[in-house]
Specification:
single chain; about 160 residues; alpha+beta; Aminopeptidase; 4 helices; globular; transferase; EC 2.3.1.-
Amino acid sequence: MEIRKFKKADTKAVVDIWNEVVKQGVAFPQKDLLDEKEGYIFFSSQSYTGIAVCDGQIVGLYILHPNNVGHCGHICNASYAVKTDQRGKHIGKQLVQDCMCQAKRLGFRILQFNAVVATNAAALHLYQELGFVPLGVIPSGFALDDGTYEDIIVHYKTL
């Protein structure tokens, strides 16, 4: 598998994967789906968008951007998406590892996740394995589409 920088030709495949996660409604804060025009603008405006390619097929991605500005501008944030039928193949781990390398290369010193949903066992396991520190729980921080709420856990890792 190769992880490389996003390019315009990736837009449709990347938008499709991103929208899969948004539609599932259990991980990303976004509710609105992207079309190709919005997607190209969104993915090309990040500090870095990484694309996972396996056997010529785009199977996952991440976006990396500042978490804040000014005195906190050295802290970055990221989101990861793996195509539903490709999950369980350790693609997410490779995306996070590449993201940490790119973040460091771009001058970030800390990678922070603001809202890891407490029921996202795969993400929680991965972040623990990679040495992320859970900072605390925000009770009912994530609104599910059915009107219920899940806790979210803030994490960070020094790069």
